[in-house]
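Exercise 7. Given the components listed, write out the predicted structure of the assembled complex. Treat all entries as one system.
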Amino acid sequence: RKEVEQDPGPFNVPEGATVAFNCTYSNSASQSFFWYRQDCRKEPKLLMSVYSSGNEDGRFTAQLNRASQYISLLIRDSKLSDSATYLCAVNGFAGKSTFGDGTTLTVKP
Amino acid sequence: DAGITQSPRHKVTETGTPVTLRCHQTENHRYMYWYRQDPGHGLRLIHYSYGVKDTDKGEVSDGYSVSRSKTEDFLLTLESATSSQTSVYFCAISESLAGGDNEQFFGPGTRLTVL
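Answer.
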């Protein structure tokens, strides 16, 4: 079983839709959590950190559930420009990140 | 954007040849990482460094070695390249260890093809 698992999708949604991604992790000692966005043939870029209290950045909301060991990303009012692959990352010792394989989102007109 | 560059950006080489990839940062971050990214496997950690001359193995380190003689440079060497090492290689940096926002910043990647 992988340390970090994501539904690979693809998720194909119309503009304006709300879409949610989940990511589960197996190491209960994990310290910090992130969502990254990766465009085709580009490097991953940090989208947002994930805090226990939940956090929001515009149309994006991230949540952490330590008891069930998963993090989630909610995107409201999807835009064409949101089309990308979304990677969750779980950090442990030495700041090492373990990444999920990514979930591909395509937003269609 | 964080100041991270990788060189070369593209390389085609033959099986059995040595290859060195370079990662250079201008952020003075302590931690540096090398990943490879392949379809169906996501990002996998090859090696990482927690300071000058301090390195350790990641989950897919076989066939790779690294060196860090200066804070700003982290080199990845394939001693004898194999076709299974055809991949996209990303370097990343991180500032801190303990808790908080120790997110990683990635370089633009190197596309390596081993024929």
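Discussion: Residues 52 and 66 of chain A are 8 Å apart (CA to CA). Chain A touches chain B through 21 residues (CB under 8 Å).
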